[in-house]
Specification:
9 helices, about 260 residues
């Protein structure tokens, strides 16, 4: 638990050199398609609903590769259907809650898993706190929930897109660092060129974990190691969640993969 006066640490954003390395996102997409046979080794899903939230300035097209793969593994995957993510404008939070409610009822009141990329992961983290009784687990990809907005190279873009200062939003408060009361996974990269990796770490707990991959921020949604981790986490039986096991065959094959 975090005290009411908790202040998120000041963390420097990634360097210019790491920002330039974000061009890796395109080769990572190619690797994703090339490694489909290996990704298919992930355990199958049980058909429960999964809601995937895009990052800043992105829409459902950005998460299509991830959603398509998860659907092939037996998950009932859905995009957020709110167009381009321009930050917390107008009724965005209420619309996301309505989407959760709609999926919850459509699937016979089965709990929903949330997957959020970057800003989408911040949304998912807060939504899991607002409706924990409807959320099975939540997974974030490169989401800087544990640092100030200035720990990213995107906060100015956020202010331009949303038309408001980051400090004005209730979602971006000091309490965001506290994990929701559901199984919570953060997938991060130390070579992330947009968000400081230190701001993407959960505090250790029985229902929290951090899984490290080596890749770009803009490619995390289709990075083969990240996709494998997401699929593995979503396949965990409801009520029997266990932390990611890095000794799996895939982890041994990709030594850059570590869990903290």
């Amino acid at each position: 638990m975090y005290p009411s006066n908790y202040a998120r640490p000041v963390i420097d954003p990634p360097s210019r050199a790491l920002m330039l390395l974000e061009t890796r996102a395109l080769p990572e997409l190619g690797a994703f398609f090339l490694l489909q046979p290996w990704l298919a080794m992930t355990p199958p899903g049980d058909g429960h609903p999964v809601l995937v939230l895009p990052g800043l300035l992105a829409d459902d097209r950005s998460t299509r590769p991830l959603r398509g793969f998860l659907k092939s593994r037996g998950h009932a995957v859905h995009g957020w259907k709110l167009g381009r993510n321009l930050g917390l404008r107008e009724t965005v939070e209420a619309d996301m809650m309505a989407r959760i409610e709609e999926l919850y009822e459509r699937y016979g009141r089965r709990k929903i898993s949330l997957v959020g990329w970057s800003l989408g992961g911040l949304y998912a983290r807060q939504l899991a706190k607002l409706a924990p009784e409807k959320i099975r687990c939540m997974i974030s990809l490169g989401s800087p929930f544990a640092g100030s907005p200035q720990s990213t190279n995107a906060w100015q873009a956020y202010e331009l897109a949303s038309g408001r200062k980051v400090s004005e939003h209730d979602l971006l408060t000091e309490q965001l660092a506290e994990a929701p009361p559901v199984p919570t996974t953060s997938i991060f990269s130390r070579s992330d060129g947009i968000c400081a990796w230190q701001a993407c770490l959960n505090v250790a707990g029985p229902q929290t974990e951090n899984i490290e991959v080596y890749g770009s921020h803009l490619g995390l949604g289709h990075h083969p190691s990240a996709v494998y981790a997401v699929a593995d986490r979503l396949a965990q039986p409801e009520g029997a969640w266990k932390k990611f096991d890095p000794s799996s065959w895939w982890a041994l094959s990709y030594p850059d993969w570590r869990r903290s």
